[in-house]
Amino acid sequence: MRRRGPTNTTFAPQTLTCRVFGCRFRFAAEGPELRWWCARGCPSGGEKRYASEEDARRMAAALDREPRGPANVLALLGGTIHRGDRR
Length: 87
What we know:
The protein is of the alpha+beta class and about 90 residues long.
């Protein structure tokens, strides 16, 4: 059977958790290379080479963030909704 999708991808979730909820990628810079892997243990991951070590470190810091929980999102929305007088 012919494979669908791009052939150069490193996204191949093997665990049930990753198939249901998606991979939880972590990012780190090793010299001028940016590396990423799934924190849930599936073999998804890869690497990309940047021109400088500083560029790779900056990208790793920007991409390696934990997702926000529902309580944080609700607090953010509650703080931005304008509440007027109810007269």
